[in-house]
């Protein structure tokens, strides 16, 4: 069964997401893919939101490990959003999903690593 650890970092990113209307076909709400958190410097936005060390330094270069971590968290917001929408709650914890469904359920509440 698929599992996912929904963290406060995921929720922080979702709360900051810029949602608009994507006027394609029938239309649908969508997170701005160019500026998901407000600016086109996505790494800087994520670093600021998640309070990475030294995020506010001018011309800050992030290490490959930092970039990889930020990219992973950003990509995981897709699953995090599915969980939030499916459960109707923004609750940190470990979730499982029935195979081939989007039916996520909380199995362990609280901070996860």
Structure description:
The structure is a single chain. This protein is an alpha+beta fold and 113 residues long. The protein has one domain (7-88). Helix content is 36%, strand content 20%. The chain has three helices and five strands; from the N terminus they run βαββααββ. The strands form two sheets. It has a three-stranded antiparallel β-sheet. The longest helix has 24 residues, at 64-87. The chain is globular. The model has no long low-confidence stretch (mean pLDDT 91).
**What is the helix tally?**
3
Report the principal-axis shape: globular
Q: What's the count of strands?
A: 5
Helix content: 25-40%
In short:
36% of the residues lie in helices and 20% in strands. It is of the alpha+beta class. Helix 1 (8-16) packs across helix 3 (64-87).
Give short descriptive properties of this protein.
113 residues, three-stranded antiparallel sheet, single chain, 3 helices, two-stranded antiparallel ribbon, 5 strands, globular, alpha+beta
